[in-house]
Task: inverse folding
């Protein structure tokens, strides 16, 4: 059952925020941002989140893969403008991270999402556990 908007975290509750322009090419024939582009916005949020924190997940024969995504659309996003993409870690599994993510426009929530990524061994294509250094970095990036 979806969480009511009134119970969702505020913009300020997320440990990471990035701002991205809405591009004309992001639009669909209805002149609002295409639903497929929302996945790209969320990916930008996760990628820049890791980059800012100095977490490299594609080294030492390892990579990161999206394994689950749930998106709830609250309002349409229009052009021109900017989106505020926010991200925080909700859960650290043995080889996965579950994020609480959202897309805001002018401080108003337009998209809510939960995304889960897994660390994979590039050679075997199987999930591989986080090491202690990674886990320590993730702990301080958790949603509170």
Result:
């Amino acid at each position: 059952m979806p969480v009511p908007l009134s119970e969702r975290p505020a913009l300020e509750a997320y440990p990471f925020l990035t701002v991205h322009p809405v591009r004309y090419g992001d639009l669909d024939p209805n002149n609002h941002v295409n639903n497929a582009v929302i996945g790209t916005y969320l990916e930008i949020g996760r990628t820049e989140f890791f980059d800012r924190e100095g977490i490299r997940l594609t080294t030492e024969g390892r990579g990161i893969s999206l394994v689950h995504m749930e998106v709830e659309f609250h309002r349409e996003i229009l052009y021109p403008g900017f989106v505020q993409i926010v991200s925080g870690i909700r859960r650290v599994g043995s080889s996965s991270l579950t994020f609480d993510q959202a897309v805001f426009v002018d401080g108003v929530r337009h998209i809510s999402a939960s995304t889960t990524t897994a660390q994979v061994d590039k050679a075997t294509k199987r999930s591989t556990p986080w090491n202690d250094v990674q886990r320590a970095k993730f702990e301080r990036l958790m949603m509170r």
Remarks:
- The longest strand covers residues 108-121.
